[in-house]
Amino acid sequence: MWKLYHGWYILATLLPALAGSTTTQQVLGDVSQCGRPNVVFILTDDQDAHLGSLEYMPFVRKHLLDEGTYFNKHYCTTAVCCPSRATLWTGKASHNTNITDVNPPYGGYPKFVDQGFNENYLPVWLQQAGYNSYYTGKLFNVHTVTNYNSPEPAGFTNYDFLLDPFTYNYLNSTFQRKGENPKSYEGYYSTDVMSQKAQSLLQDAVLAEEPFFLTIAPIAPHGNIVMNGSALDKNPVFEHSAPIPAKRHELLFGDVQVPRSANFNPGKPSGANWVLDLPQQTQENVEYNDHYHRQRIRSLQAVDELVDDIFAKLEEYGILENTYVFYSSDNGFHIGQHRLQPGKSCGYEEDINIPLIVRGPGVAANQTTEIVTTHTDLAPTFFDILGIPTREDFDGNAIPITPDGINEASQRRREHVAVEYWGYAGGEGIFDRTLHENNTYKAIRISGDGYKFYYSIWCNNEHELYDMDTDPGQMNNLLSVPSSMDTTKSSPSAAIIVAGYPLNKIVSRLDSLLLVLKSCKGAVCREPWKALHPKRDVNTLKEALSSKFDDFYQEQQTRVAFDYCWNGYVPEAEGSMWEKDGLFFRDGLPWHVWT
After folding, report:
1. Can you give the pTM of this predicted structure?
2. Which ranges of the chain have pLDDT less than 50?
3. Half-sphere exposure at residue 61, Cβ-oriented, CA atoms within 13 angstroms
4. Which pLDDT value is given to residue 579?
5. What are the record keywords, sorted (predicted)?
6. What is the pLDDT of residue 234?
7. Hey, what's the torsion of the CAs at 5, 9, 12, 17, to 10 degrees?
8. Run of H or E residues at 175
9. What is the reported pLDDT for 212?
10. Cα angle at 169 between 163 and 173, to 5 degrees?
């Protein structure tokens, strides 16, 4: 029998097992907290910032966008889930976690454990700082019904994880609660099950009367995947289809289409490497992609209801005013842009620019900021707002979330995002599921006073540069020139003016910055210009573009170049590296010599 509850349908028989027998009134009592703040982190899977998905989430609008601050220049640094999540939980870029794929040998939960992070990541640090930590939903890929307790994910007071091979199966999920065996929820809608589990964990957190950090990680709007085994099994078969919405949402948004932006299925090819060779999609293909887009939005409706239910509970427990709520995604998504099939894994804006919304004490309501932030910044941010001393090995900086902090940061915060990827890219629709090889690249997204650029170098050493002030769809690659032309030095490119500067000047600075960022650690990732300019007289691209540095950048610097393509992080393939053995090298000489 179906039962109406908080405006949506769940199985009446499911409630007692998920929510426990303690009543809301018993939990409430005099539970209002005024001490250390709490955090609720809602982390969706593959949610876009450029295809309009947030526009179809009225409860996210009501509780978060209208009452919080939206960071519209927030970026993941590796556009696929497992590496991105490892960055979220460690505060380290993928080249420092060496978790660069969704499956072994270069990624997945076993790789996370092998790298030693199960004893050294955010939940463990939170517990050490006196916080209870709770989690429901997807943690990592290849966290399975067979390896879930070998070892158990460390650092959690309680949890209820989704497990492979059922993680992405909307109608046949398997969860594993701490201390219990995995349990199948075949026939139940995954996000609805998770909403009840989240409310149960929130109740546990309130009853414990300790400050807490609760993560809720639904799979929507990721595609539906039916697996006959995990990546640890021999010859597993994955059947990938569009996301599946809850029954009550399956007929919504019948006329919605993928936004017809300039880069949507363009008549002229765009991009570089294998992207440049993609054929224009047929009308049948485009119509399917519109369907895929609608299914994504429909699947997010249950997430939107989950958000409403969590806020209702926070208000009932009297802790909303002392709780920060973060909403983000692991990576973005493209559908048809640059002729790409539904998917991610590229460095283009649709894949790396993702939602980040923050609501909580001191956070401005109904505000949007353009300060540059990344997933490497989230762990430092949680440390900052919870009063935990920062770690010097974080690759990111705490994100200012108050109006005064944001205003100050707009004057001096870093401009850059370091983007990296290794391995394959694959379409997730039905028209082209080719695994495109050599999808390994390093890139910079930079947004400063008077300029916005995306600069990338693929492992086949093709270069891209887009002036995103004039070309936000990244259609005109300013470096689509013969490979023999070095645009970092004196060349015909010097006659091309971009954002008021000769093209070769811009490229030489961005290339040197990328050389630092592609192997940086800690403070160097946070302030890479200081590695190039130890006198600390350069902090922005604009300052580096001074003519007094022309010879330094255009003649002296080693250029970024891959030695060969590889599907994981292998230093031998990466070409010149700025950081080696803890010392910074230039022209073969360590820091202490050339300074």
Report:
1. 0.92
2. 1-33, 483-485, 492, 581-583, 585-588, 590-595
3. 8
4. 67
5. Glycoprotein, Hydrolase, Signal
6. 84
7. -90
8. strand 172-177
9. 98
10. 50
Which residues fall within 8 angstroms of residue 131, CB to CB, at 6 or more apart?
36, 210, 211, 212, 213, 386
Long-range contacts of 22-26 (CB under 8 A, 24+ apart): 22/203, 22/207, 24/313, 24/316
Q: Which two tokens stand for residue 551?
A: 């010879």
Helices (H) and strands (E) in the chain, counts: 18, 27
pLDDT given for residue 34 in this prediction? 54
**Catalytic (active site) residue 81:** yes
Q: Is the dihedral of CA 131, 378, 153, 170 positive or negative?
A: positive
Distance CA 237, CA 225 (A): 10
Query: What CATH number belongs to 36-332+349-401?
Result: 3.40.720.10
Task: Say how many C-beta atoms besides its own lie within 10 A of residue 366's C-beta.
Answer: 11
For residue 389, whether the previous peptide bond is cis, meaning omega lies within 30 degrees of 0, is no
Check 81, 459, 525, 565 and give the catalytic one: 81
Cis peptide before 105 (omega within 30 of 0): yes
For β-strands 172-177 and 158-162, DSSP reports them as antiparallel
Structure tokens at 331: 């990576």
C-alpha span between 101 and 435 (Å, rounded): 14
User: Can you spell out the DSSP letters for 302-370?
Assistant: HHHHHHHHHHHHHHHTT-GGGEEEEEEES---BSSBTTPPSB--S-SHHHHB--EEEESTTPPTTEEE-
Distance separating alpha carbons of residues 421 and 423, to the nearest angstrom? 7
Return the axis-axis angle of helices 190-208 and 283-316, rounded to nearest 10°: 20
Cβ(516)–Cβ(531) below 8 Å: yes
Q: How far, CA to CA in Å, does 287 sit from each of 48, 283, 292?
A: 19, 6, 9
Q: Return the exposure string of 67-81: e unless at least 16 CB atoms fall within 10 Å of the residue's CB, then b.
A: bbbbbebbbbbbbbb
Task: Please report the pLDDT score of residue 486 as a whole number.
Answer: 57
CA distance 478 to 474: 10
